[in-house]
Amino acid sequence: MPSKRQENKQLQTDKIVEAAKELFTERGLNDVQMKDVAERAGAGVATVFRYFPKKDELIVEVAIRSLDAVEAEFQRIISMKSSAFERLEQLLDTLLDAQKAEQYKSARFREAFESYASFRTEPLPEIDRYLARQRQIMDLLEPLIQDGQRDGSINSSIPAKPLIVTIINSYSSFTNNVALKSSISYLDEDIQPETQQKVLKKILLDYCRA
Asked: For the stretch 66-75, what's the b/e string if a residue is b when 16 or more beta carbons lie within 10 angstroms of its beta carbon?
């Protein structure tokens, strides 16, 4: 059982991370300073630096924690009693519903984080933890495709892991992208993001169907 001191430390960490998440989604990663996080968290700047000596460490921690809800929801879908193909469809619906519910906040943070990480000349501190968490989530989904390939409902011409990784990455990236651009009309006839997302969902499911 954790001591009172450990509990207080965890509570303080949670407050700092939550404050940082709010600010990063509101302003972007580059325009947030540690003093801003301290003010939002109701803590001293020295306290924030004691928990996270570098801003990059805080950014990665927010990114890692952003995967908690994703993993929990994927676990729920995997454990459903429906067919593998139906669970795959539910998986894509969940990714789409998340975009609506969060009103682009999650999409904005993920896009900002991935862009920020990709332009670094050196790897972000603790980025291996983030990548390991992503792999862990993908490993959860691989058996879903294997189930479908065994029961004949999902295309077996492609190995399970490349198939599920490609589906999730392409659909997540696309839904994030159109959500972020939803306020910009860049077509002669504006096509709503939800319509585009449903079209891609059908393309992916039709391809996966055996």
From this structure: bbeebeebbe
User: Has domain 55-208 been given CATH number 2.40.128.20?
Assistant: no
CATH number of 1-53: 1.10.10.60
Q: Dihedrals φ, ψ of 75, to 5°?
A: -60, -40
What tokens does 144 get?
Answer: 């879903």
> In this structure, what token pair is assigned to residue 150?
């065994």
Q: Based on the number of CB atoms within 10 Å of its own CB, is 154 exposed (0-12), middle (13-18) or buried (19 or more)? A: buried
Residue 190, pLDDT score: 66
- Render pLDDT for 29-85 as a digit per residue (tens, 0 to 9): 999 999 999 999 999 999 999 999 999 999 999 999 988 888 898 999 999 999 999
Q: What are the beta bridge partners of residue 154?
A: 209
